[in-house]
Amino acid sequence: MTEGRKGQRARGLGRAFATAFDLPQDAVANLPRLVMVGNTEVRIDNHRGLIHCSPERVIVGAGPNQITIQGISLVLEHAYREHILITGDIRAVTFED
Amino acid sequence: MGTRQLLEYLGGWVEFRARGHQPHRLVNLALSRGIGLWDIRQTEHMLIARVRPSQFRALRPLARTAGVRLKVLSRGGVPFRITHWRRRWPTVIMLTAALLICTHLSTFIWFVTVEGTETLPDTAILSLVSDHGLRPGVPRRSIDPAAISRHLTIDEELIAWAAVEIQGTRAIVQIAERVPQQAHLWKTMPGDMVAGSDGLMTQVLVMSGMALVRAGDAVTRGDILIQGPAGGRASGVTKALTWYEAYRESPTTITTDIPTGNYLERVLIKAGPWEIILRGRGDIPYEHWQVAEDRRCLLDWRNMRVAVEVVSQRISETLRQVEQLDRRAAEQAACKDAIAHAFRHVPPEARIVDLSVRIVSVQSDVAGVRVRITANEDIGRFVPSAGI
With a CB-CB cutoff of 8 Å, which residues 22-51 of chain A face chain B? Predict the structure, then answer.
């Protein structure tokens, strides 16, 4: 609980720092960066690993959240330490705590 | 094939299947060790993905940690292709040798075909082109189609037009023959006898028609000699003196370039009129020299050529020696050549009346000889009446 609060405070400070100095938040606050190409491709940088993978749903860890990508025929095109690329017919991208 | 697929193909890949309770744990473990995966497809208890061959070994302990079992499904890419062909080295050598032999053999002419002949036998044409260097087995580079075409029309008067086309290893000699007059029609046609060449009439003997010239008259080509009767055909003997001239030269000195042994080499790129020297010097420090060139066209396949070529030159210094010949011997050589040239145009049935030779010295180092042959021959040519 204490760790969670510390983490939240750190992230809050990071965001404030990034806002004050006009810096990218993904770099400073360690937040994921999502790049979508239409609804066929999504690239997630700064991820925290794969939690679930099926043709209908891919869940990727991303800092405090989990990113859930729902769709049809989803394929993990490639997965590297820095980024993950998911292709397919993407229907929804949601963030869950 | 995209860039990513190309890189994957070049680096090679191993496609594996991971079976277990939570196969995605293997992905996370692999990512944490810096092992990249791609084409990942997962069902509930199974995951199929591709990995670099060098990184597959590192996946084994991770699979044990993740509690999954690995099985290789397939392998592909350049490293596996190389291994595949390395085991079959005799085949590779034979294929390479066959390719090289085929490439080398394709630089020769292997077939010579004749098209368009009607009365002339193909063998005669093949024999003619063979005299000019076009025969099966000769290198394609040594063939000059334009020169051969030109020689064909000169050598064989029945050929009105000729063209030599090189298609790969095949040379096609296309011939258009002169249209032969139809003999039976020709003999019954009304018409006149006209002069086939300039001359001085020596004998006019009319068999049919009316003579328009007499012995002693000078006629020019195309003049009517015997006019045919109305609706009839002129015939007769129309002999005249005709002249055939030729001029030939022969040098009175022989210039010989003897290599001194000094040489320089240079490599340059030629593109039309421009040339860029890649290696070697631009100026040539010799007074006299000979150049041996090796030209390599960047693309020279069948009839496709690129104007850019790489030229390797070896410029050898030479010492020029000028040898003075006997002027009389040079004149005799020129005279012999001129007579042979003049006789080339004299018809075989003509009677030679006179042969005059005149030495013409235009330049000090050249002996010039003019030959004039006077012949007595029948110059009458039958020409059908106008309107027929």
Answer: 49-51
CB B272 within 8 A of CB B306: no
**Residue B155: predicted pLDDT:** 74
Average pLDDT rounded to a whole number, residues B193-198: 87
The CA distance from B249 to B228, in Å, is: 46
Q: Find, among B337, B269, B360, B354, the residue nearest to B307 by Cα.
A: B269
CA distances from B359 to B242, B248, B338, B346 (A): 22, 10, 11, 22
Query: How many angstroms separate the CA atoms of B8 and B189, rounded?
Result: 85
| Tokens describing residue B361 | 């010295």
Contact A78 B24 (CB under 8 A): no
- Position A2 confidence tier, pLDDT thresholds 50, 70, 90: very low
Does residue B32 sit in helix, strand or coil? helix
Please give the structure tokens belonging to residue B136. Answer: 């099966």
**Closest approach of A20 to chain B, Cα-based (Å):** 33
Select the more confidently predicted residue: B305 or B214: B214
Q: What does the alpha-carbon distance between residue B38 and residue B71 come to, in Å, rounded to a whole number?
A: 16
Cβ separation of A79 and B41 shorter than 8 Å? no
Handedness of CA B234, B235, B236, B238 (dihedral sign): positive
What is the torsion angle, in degrees rounded to the nearest 10, for the CA atoms of residue B77, residue B81, residue B82 and residue B85? 180
Token duo for residue B266? 């240079």
> Residue B42: pLDDT above 90?
no
Interchain CB distance below 8 Å, A75 and B39: yes
Residue labelled with tokens 């760790």: A3
Q: Under an 8 A CB cutoff, do A79 and B36 touch?
A: yes
Report the pLDDT averaged over residues A78-85: 88
Q: Please report which confidence band the pLDDT of residue B184 belongs to, taking 50, 70 and 90 as the band edges.
A: low
CB B33 within 8 A of CB A61: no
pLDDT bin (cut points 50, 70, 90) of residue A3 is: very low
Residue B44: list chain A partners with CB under 8 A: 54
Name the residue facing B24 among A50, A55, A80 (closest C-beta). A50
Q: Look at residue A29 and tell me whether its pLDDT is greater than 80.
A: no
Q: Would residue B181 be called left, alpha or beta, if left means φ above 0 and alpha means ψ between -120 and 50 degrees?
A: beta
- Measured over the CA atoms of residue A85, residue A91, residue A93 and residue A97, the dihedral's sign is negative
Q: Is A95 helix (H, G, I), strand (E, B) or coil?
A: strand
pLDDT at A96: 85
